[in-house]
Amino acid sequence: MRSINISEKLLNTIGIIGLVCICSAIFYFNTVVFVVGSIAIAFFVVASSLSVGFETMDYDGIMRSVTEIIETDKEKLVHSQDTIKLSRIIEELDRIKKPELLSAVVNKYAANLEDKSPKVRAETARMFKKIIPTMQKAEHGKTYIDLNATFIDVEDLETDRGAYFEIADLLEKGIPWFVEKDIYNKPNEIIQMFSNHSENEEQQDRAKWAFKVLKKIANKNLVELLIRALRSENSITRKEAYFFIKNMSSNPAATKFNKRVVKELKDVDNDTANDLKNVLTGGKK
64 to each of 2, 22, 58, 59, how far by Cα in Å? Predict the structure, then answer.
C-alpha cells in the first residue's frame, strides 16, 4: 500500500482556504462556512505535524525521489522547495541506513547557500530551518554535524544582512542539540566566529549583527542545558561545559548570560562549578 503524500504547496493552499473561510464566516456570520474553514485548518495542522507520511515509503520510491533531487539543478530546487517531502525523504534514508545518500541529498540543497544571490542564500537557510528538527532526530547524526560545518563556513563569509541572520538562526538552533549530545567543538567554533565578527571594526555593520546573534544565543534555555551538564557525574562533560561557558562569557554580549549562570551555579557544588563561579565573579562571593 502506498503512503499518502501531499505536497507542501497543496497543504499550504488548504491552510489558506481555511483561514479565508473562517474570516469570511466571522464577517458574514455564516456558520457553515466557519465549520468548513475549521475543518480545513484542523486538517492542515494535523497533516503538518505528521508530515503527512502515514506509512513508510517502499525502497524504489525512496530511490526515485533521491534520483530526482540529485539530477535536478540546484537553482531549481530553491524555487520548488517541498520541505514536507524533503523531511520525509530524510526520515526514510535514515530508516533504511543510507547515510551516503542522505548526505548527498542534503548537500545538494546546501550548495545554494553559496549562491551569488543573497535572496537565494536567505531562502535556502529558511528552507533548512523547516527540516532541522527532522535532521536532529535522525539516527545518523554525522550528516547534521557536517551540515553545521557548512553553515559555519558560509556564515563566516556572509555580508548580506538578511542572509546573515537567517544562517545565524540555523546555527543558534543547533547549539542546544550539540550540548545535549556532549559535542562542544561545533558550539565553541560558532561562538568564536560570532565573537570575531562582533569585534571586527573594519566591518561595523556585521559586528552589530554578530553582537545581536550572540545575545540571542545566550538565552535561558541554553543556560539550563549547561547547568545540567555541570551537574553531571561525568567529569569530561563538566569540563566541556565549563570551557564553553568560559568562552561565551568573555564576549560583551554575554552580560545577562553570565548573571544567569552565576545565579544557577549557587545550587551546584563540585570542583568544576566552584572554579567557574570564581572565574565569572572574579572571586567575589
Answer: 14, 39, 10, 9
State pTM to two decimals: 0.79
Total domains in the fold of the chain: 1
Residue type, 71: E
- The pairs formed by 20-26 with CB atoms below 8 angstroms and a separation of 24 or more are none
| Structural domain containing residue 31 | 1-54
Q: What tens-digit pLDDT sequence spans the chain (285 residues)?
A: 334 445 555 666 776 786 777 777 677 667 776 677 678 667 666 665 544 444 577 889 999 999 999 999 988 887 776 888 899 999 999 999 999 999 999 999 999 999 999 999 999 999 999 999 999 999 999 999 999 999 999 999 999 999 999 999 999 999 999 999 999 999 999 999 999 999 999 999 999 999 999 999 999 999 999 999 999 999 999 999 999 999 999 999 999 999 999 999 999 999 999 999 999 998 665
- Does the residue 201 lie in any domain? no
**How many angstroms separate the Cα of 253 from the Cα of each of 48, 151, 257, 265, 276?**
36, 22, 8, 20, 18
- 2 lies in a domain? yes
Do 226 and 179 form a contact (C-beta atoms < 8 A)? yes
The answer to whether position 21 is within a domain reads yes
Does residue 4 fall inside a structural domain? yes
Q: Which triple of cell numbers denotes residue 69? A: 533531487
